[in-house]
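Record Sel1 repeat family protein, 129 aa.
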Amino acid sequence: MKRVLIAGLAALMLAQPVAAQHGDEGDIAYRRALTYRSGGDAALALHWLEVAASRGMPEAMFMLATLLLDGEGGPRDEAAARRWLEAAAELDYPEAWQQLGLMETDPEKAGQYMRRAAHALSHRGELKR
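=>
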C-alpha cells in the first residue's frame, strides 16, 4: 500500500509541470486524446488533440499533425498537418523539426530543419539533467 501511495504521489509530481505549463484544460485534453487513440477511437483522439494543441501544447500539435498526415480519425490533410508542425517547431519541439525536414523537398532546407531538430533535442537533454 505504501509503495502504491508513493508511486501515485510521484506520478502527480511529474505531471505538475506539464499542467502548469499548458494549463489544466490542455493537459486533460491531451490525456483524453491518448486514451481514445489507444482505445482505437481516432476521431475522438483527433478532436481532443485539437483542443490540447490550441492550448499551446507542442506534443499535441505534433501528434495531431501525425494523425492528419495519415488520415487517421478524419480525412488526410497535409496542409493542416504542416501548419501544426510549424507551430510545434516554433516552440522548438524536436520531433516537429524532424518531420518538417522529412517532408521538405529542398535538400538544403531539409538539412536546416534536421539541424534545428538536433539542436532542440540537445536542449531537451539539458533540461532533464
